[in-house]
Amino acid sequence: MQDKFKKMNKKNLIIALLLAVVLGVSGVWYFIFYRPRLPRDITNEDAVSVTSKQIVKEFQTNEAEAYKKYPTSKVVEITGEIAECGKDQSGHPTVSIKSDDPFSNVFITLRQSKQLEAKVGTKITVRGIVTGFLSDVLINEGVVTKQ
Amino acid sequence: MKKKVILFGFLSIIVSNSLLAQKLYTTKVAQIKFLSSSATEDIDAVNNQVDSKMTEKGQVFFNLLIKGFVFDNELMQKHFNGEEYLNSDKYPKAEFKGVIPNIATVNFLKDGAYPIMASGNLTIRGITKKESAAGLIIIEKGKVHAKSTFKIKLKDYGITGKDIGTVISNNIQITVDAKYD
């Protein structure tokens, strides 16, 4: 009787252990491969502050150097005058900030879901992550810090 | 003399009209998605910062930054941009420059959905290849909207990461959606 009980206990223990291993492995698997994107704390991360005029000029003069100064994974803080507000095809609000060249602005896709209410020509400061340089300097995950 | 002035007037009207007809449609927020579908899983990403231009004569241009593709999964995005796959530090842009040979079938003044073909040069990872794709141009209340879905082979663009052929499909489906200003 006691023997049988012992045997069952051992069996249960093995099953429990196996379960724990399976859960553990699948948990790690999920964490690595399916973990949803954690939003970065853009407002409080270290950021290079620059005017829209300056960053556009730097990318136009020497793209390689500008990428070194404003790496694509880092947060930048852009200040300048609003050229245009809009939204992209997924519905994210966007804002263009003027440079000295009318054909090249800083174009920012914002994180907020509400359309940006700001007048063209007014000053704004936005933080975000540099995507790179096309005809505009493109920035993603923008957060308005001063308006 | 009077005749000449009238003639000149007519001529300038004709010339300016034909110049106006060469209208340029642009957007900075065209959307390009891609999808890799394999037995193991579907991987997709979207780029909402695509620069595109189109003329009524059927010239089309798309320009984007590889780093503009956003994945739900951060690790996947990192791998995608890594050296083994898109190597976006070295090749930050992708571009398509082409023509729509049957553009004449599109009536830009009349609402409707017009089937088109586009063909041209697609550049990804520094490699340029001829591609062609079927699509639609939709005219609605004076606005121009272009759509297309086509497939490309990763191998053609020198993308040979170790998961291609298993987790990642050999052929990637690209969906283009451009609502012009």
Description of the molecule:
The complex is a heterodimer of chains A (147) and B (181). Chain A is α/β, with parallel strands linked by helices and 147 residues long. Helix content of chain A is 33%, strand content 33%. Chain A has a 5-stranded mixed beta barrel. Chain A has 2 domains: 36 residues; 100 residues, OB fold (Dihydrolipoamide Acetyltransferase, E2P), CATH 2.40.50. Chain A is elongated, with a radius of gyration of 25 Å. An 8-stranded antiparallel beta barrel of chain B has the order 1-2-3-4-5-6-7-8. With 181 residues, chain B is α+β, with helices and mostly antiparallel strands. Chain B is elongated and about 75 Å long. In chain B, a hairpin with a 3-residue loop joins strand 2 and strand 3. The interface between A and B is medium-sized, with 25 and 24 residues.
Main features:
heterodimer, A: 147 residues, alpha/beta, OB fold (Dihydrolipoamide Acetyltransferase, E2P), 2 domains, 3 helices, 33% helix, elongated, B: 181 residues, alpha+beta, 8-stranded antiparallel beta barrel, 15% helix, 49% strand
In short:
The complex is a heterodimer of chains A (147) and B (181). Chain A is of the alpha/beta class and 147 residues long.
The main sheet of chain A comes to:
5 strands, mixed, barrel
Note the total helix count of chain B: 2
Please state how the strands of the largest beta sheet of chain B are arranged side by side: 1-2-3-4-5-6-7-8
Instruction: Flag low-confidence runs of chain B.
Output: none
Which radius of gyration of chain A do the C-alpha atoms yield? 25 Å
Q: What is the CATH topology descriptor of the largest domain in chain A? A: OB fold (Dihydrolipoamide Acetyltransferase, E2P)
How many structural domains are formed by the residues of chain A?
2
Output the structural class of chain A.
alpha/beta
Number of helices of chain A: 3
The total of beta strands of chain A comes to 6
Which chains share the greatest interface?
A: A-B, 25 and 24 residues
Poorly predicted residue ranges of chain A? none
For the record, give the distance between the C-alpha atoms at the N and C termini of chain B, rounded to a whole number.
44 Å
Helical fraction of chain A equals 25-40%
| CATH architectural type of the largest domain in chain A | Beta Barrel
Distance between the termini of chain A: 79 Å
Helix-strand makeup class of chain B: alpha+beta
Helix content of chain B: 10-25%
